[in-house]
Design a protein that fits this description.
- The chain has a 19-stranded mixed sheet that branches.
- Helix content is 33%, strand content 33%.
- With 403 residues, the chain is of the alpha+beta class.
- Helix 1 crosses helix 2.
- It starts with a helix and ends with a strand.
- It is elongated.
- About 10% of the residues have low confidence.
- It has 3 domains: 131 residues, no CATH class; 182 residues, Sandwich (Jelly Rolls); 69 residues, Phage tail protein beta-alpha-beta fold, CATH 3.55.50.30.
- The longest helix has 48 residues.
- This is FecR family protein.
- It holds the Pfam family FecR.
């Protein structure tokens, strides 16, 4: 027979008066108790408290149906039983009731442990959230550096709006924050002069080239281009990620060169993502058509298609029915994830928030789906990601991740 202490704890459990420590003590005893001890204790608890037990109706109906079914089976197997309750019948009834009580107690303890687990996880997450907010990081902004042909530089995010410079036959204007416009007053006869715009981590910028082509630059990107296009083609060089809306000119194809890949168009809209810490160069076509070439391979993309060229192996692939919304979310001011791996998400966060990511142990194999504005603080992004089993910590300009 269980001790008075255990009997006392079971009484308190059924009357919902157990403390957390008492519930734990009861659970510890149940782990080592014999079946006979459980049956005897739980049977008497049932008799004392069956009218006060609370459980979902569906579950109680299943338990009752199971008990009555077993009773019918036992009575059929023992036709010599009398109506009065014999000791043998009493204990068989007791075991059946004990089985029911065991289910109820198991459900109660399971719910309690589930509650404690979720409660502890929520408390841990609240601690994380407070840490995020205390060590918060602001989102990226419109900032870039313009490097002229002679090597001189202008920090565009701190320069005043208006006329930035005049080089040769080209005026360089900054009509508003985050935008640069090249206006060619005449076609130069001399060699073309090149400019380079570079966005740092945590920066973005827009440019209108001298031919009217519009350019959106993501963080950690660069574009080298002539101030005025001359000759038989319009050629630019890029790194990082850039979206192009190319002004149509059938006599001068527009060519984008990056890491040995070349994209050739006459006039169309497309996105090129060529970060060196990604696995491949991705070229995504929005409208028109483009020719993508690398080494001895080439392909013609149609709207909604994407080419992938591996950095390490040079493997050329064409993907149909790409989500343009996902690929261009950065340009529209969003993070958009569609079953996206954690490491891919964190690379985007590194570039946009100008932080470094450090993993403690193995990189968690987690994938996320969702949409967030890019103009939000880093804490708000990590609050969402921390709803998983992953722990995040901000230390200065570093994010530390543990499974």
């Amino acid at each position: 027979m269980p001790s008075e202490r255990i009997t006392f704890l079971v009484e308190k459990f059924f009357s919902n008066r157990c403390t957390e420590d008492e519930k734990y003590e009861l659970m510890q005893w149940a782990n080592v108790a014999t079946e006979d001890e459980l049956a005897e204790l739980l049977y008497h608890s049932w008799k004392n408290h069956e009218a006060n037990l609370e459980m979902p109706e569906e579950m109680s109906q299943r338990i009752l149906a199971s008990i009555f079914h077993k009773e019918e089976s036992i009575e059929e197997e023992n036709p010599t039983w009398e109506e009065e309750e014999t000791p043998s019948r009493f204990w068989q009834m007791g075991y059946r009731m004990a089985a029911s009580i065991a289910v109820i107690v198991a459900v109660g303890l399971f719910a309690w442990f589930q509650y404690n687990t979720v409660h502890q996880r929520n408390e841990n997450r609240l601690v994380q959230v407070k840490e995020f907010e205390k060590n918060d990081v602001l989102p990226g902004t419109n900032k870039a550096i313009l490097t002229f042909d002679d090597g001189s530089k202008v920090i565009l995010d701190t320069s005043k709006n208006g006329n930035i410079a005049k080089q040769g036959a080209t005026n360089i204007l900054k009509p508003e924050k985050g935008q640069l416009v090249y206006q060619a007053t005449e076609t130069p006869n001399a060699r073309p002069m090149y400019n380079t715009i570079t966005t740092p981590k945590g920066g973005q910028y827009q440019i209108v080239l001298s031919d009217g082509t519009k350019v959106w630059m993501n963080a950690a990107s660069s574009l080298r281009f002539p101030m005025v296009f001359v000759g038989k083609e319009r050629k630019v060089e890029m790194t990082g990620e850039i979206y192009f809306e190319v002004a149509k000119n059938t006599k001068m194809p527009f060519k984008v060169s990056t890491n040995g890949q070349e994209v050739e168009v006459l006039g169309t809209h497309f996105n090129v993502m060529a970060y060196e810490n990604e696995k491949s160069i991705k070229t995504t076509l929005v409208e028109g058509s483009v020719k993508v070439s690398k080494d001895n391979h080439s392909t013609i993309l149609q709207p909604g298609q994407q080419s992938k060229v591996g950095f390490s192996n040079g493997i050329f692939r064409t993907i149909n029915d790409v989500s343009l919304e996902d690929e261009l979310a950065w340009k529209e001011g969003y993070f958009q994830f569609n079953n996206t791996s954690l490491d891919m998400i964190m690379r985007q966060i590194e570039r946009w928030y100008d932080v470094d990511v450090q993993y403690i142990g193995k990189v968690p194999d987690e994938h996320f789906t969702g949409k967030l504005p890019r103009n939000t603080n880093l804490s708000n992004v990590l609050k969402i990601l921390s709803m998983s089993e992953i722990q995040f910590k901000i230390e200065g300009k570093k994010i530390i991740i543990t499974p």
